[in-house]
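Hypothesis: this fold can be encoded by more than one sequence.
Test: take the structure tokens below, design a sequence, compare later.
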């Protein structure tokens, strides 16, 4: 049981920690690139600010383990939108070195879905 809970903690720290780097980059450099994509897809401009929820707030709360399933769901939704806006056409393509073009976005998406299904584990502020 301890190893299961430790595994859940490592998964939360990995997903939240790595996603947080993306959010901090956007906080420092802005979301202009994403805003252009959102508008080009016919979505309202205010939608772009959801990236701060999905890439800063959700990762922090996921790392802490507060309502992990919910915040992992937010990250999963964020990644679905990111794939739709930026890489949907690459779904069946290979990227550099023979890797799947969607390897990194799918890594985040599937890791987030794993946390949604597994929950936060014992080492969390509020287990779910």
């Amino acid at each position: 049981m301890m190893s299961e809970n430790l595994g859940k903690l490592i998964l939360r720290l990995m997903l939240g920690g790595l996603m947080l780097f993306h959010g901090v980059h956007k906080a420092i450099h802005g979301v202009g690139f994403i805003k252009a994509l959102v508008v080009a897809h016919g979505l309202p401009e205010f939608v772009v600010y959801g990236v701060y929820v999905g890439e800063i707030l959700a990762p922090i709360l996921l790392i802490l383990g507060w309502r992990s399933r919910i915040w992992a769901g937010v990250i999963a939704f964020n990644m679905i939108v990111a794939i739709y806006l930026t890489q949907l056409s690459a779904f069946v393509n290979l990227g550099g070195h023979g890797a799947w073009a969607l390897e990194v976005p799918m890594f985040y998406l599937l890791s987030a879905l794993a946390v949604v299904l597994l929950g936060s584990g014992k080492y969390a502020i509020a287990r779910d």
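The longest helix spans residues 2-29. The mean pLDDT is 93.
Hypothesis status: open.
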